[in-house]
Design a protein that fits this description.
Tyrosyl-Transfer RNA Synthetase, Rossmann fold, 4 strands, two-stranded parallel sheet, single chain, binds tryptophanyl-5'AMP
Length: about 350
């Protein structure tokens, strides 16, 4: 993640040239059967936690390993100078002209985040439109995300429909691919009424992929539960214990009911140690792999650059299409006009 500063879109894997050819072919024949393409992203702030991993990233890997055409990005526009990725911001502006402030103000992520700051930055407000531009620029058909992103995805669908109605069929209507409900929103370990989040100030609220075994033990011990000592799975009434059981279940593939049965007789304090041990064991190979990659910055840089180059071919193609349809494409005639008026001014 350190390597991403100053760039907006880094593609973390390669997709096949076969797919590119398919896209070109489908445009040429003017059919509206879109090639299946997966797009998703993650913000570069903080370190990846279990919510990100189980809510989205695990699915990304699955789809990639299944041979799907995938593009995964690090959404770091806030930390860069704009000209490096003009298509994203240009399409963002174009789409921004097709929606209303009222619609954006209703998006739950905006409501949640704006409630925590005194002065609401314009970027926070416009963020879902930029996300829509990210997705539509690659004509993605499927977007694997956690459940917190579903409202943003509804806006993307809405914008794609408006654009298509106004300017002709240009974008597929992308579908959110959301993990099943227990995983789709892992909760904070310190306050299970909230989601596990990178932006939560208390680092004990989340388990990060790079946490050491000691960090994991400490965080599990401090996880907020309740005053009942048995291990039962009741997300409504006992969200803290249910969250631990969910994490346990995700790592082991065991059903929550089986986990409760296996741990009959333990109180929550001792069960936390069991969960810590499971997480320590399962996360260790992943942590080591991340460390290995982090010790090879040149390799990471190379993969990111290669991906970004491939992605920009698609981005430029889409933006040219959009520009032409909207009437922004400067043709020879209008360019000549511009020169005439410049001469007059001088
Ligand atoms: P971000 O960085 O907040 O999160 C990355 C992914 O992790 C999921 N996620 C969770 N899933 C389950 N439980 C949780 N506690 C949890 N916390 C996070 C998120 O749903 C997300 O799928 N706006 C996006 C980044 C983005 C993007 C895009 C995504 C920018 N452009 C285009 C898809 C397509 C975000 O802030 O994700």
């Amino acid at each position: 993640m350190v390597l991403t500063v100053g760039r907006r879109l880094h593609i973390l894997n390669e997709y096949s040239s076969r797919c590119l050819k398919q896209v070109r072919r489908s445009h040429a024949t003017e059919t509206f059967k879109w090639s299946h393409r997966v797009f998703s992203g993650i913000q570069p702030t903080g370190s990846m936690h279990l919510g990100n991993y189980f809510g989205a990233v695990q699915k990304w890997v699955e789809m990639q390993n299944a041979g799907e055409s995938v593009i995964y990005s690090i959404a770091d526009l806030h930390s860069i100078t704009l000209p490096q990725i003009p298509e994203h911001t240009q399409l963002c502006w174009t789409l921004g002209c097709l929606t209303t402030m009222a619609r954006l103000a209703h998006i739950p992520t905006y409501k949640e985040k704006s409630a925590t700051v005194k002065e609401v930055p314009l970027g926070l407000y416009v963020y879902p439109v930029l996300q829509a531009a990210d997705i539509l620029l690659y004509r993605a058909t499927h977007v694997p995300v956690g459940e917190d992103q579903t409202h943003n995805l509804e806006l993307v669908q809405h914008l794609a429909k408006i654009f298509n109605n106004r300017y002709g069929h240009t974008f597929p209507i992308p579908k959110a691919v959301v993990a099943d409900s227990s995983i789709s929103r892992l909760k904070s370990l310190r306050d299970p009424s909230k989601k596990m989040s990178k932006s939560e100030q208390d680092p004990k609220s989340r388990i990060e992929i790079t946490d050491t075994p000691d960090d994991i033990l400490e965080k599990c011990k401090k996880a907020l539960t309740d005053f009942t000592s048995e291990i039962t799975f009741d997300p409504e009434k006992r969200p803290g214990v249910a969250n631990l059981i969910t994490i346990h279940s995700l790592f082991t593939g065991l059903d929550p009911a089986e986990i409760c049965e296996q741990n009959i007789g333990l109180d929550t304090g001792r069960y936390k140690l069991v969960v810590a041990e499971v997480i320590q064991e399962k996360l260790e190979p992943l942590r080591q792999q991340v460390q290995q990659y982090m010790s090879e910055p040149q390799y990471i840089e190379e993969v990111l650059n290669r991906g970004a180059d491939k992605a920009s071919v698609i981005a430029q193609q889409t933006w040219l299409d959009v520009k032409t349809k909207v009437g922004l494409q400067i043709n020879e005639g209008s360019y000549r006009c511009l020169q005439v008026s410049e001469k007059r001014v001088m």
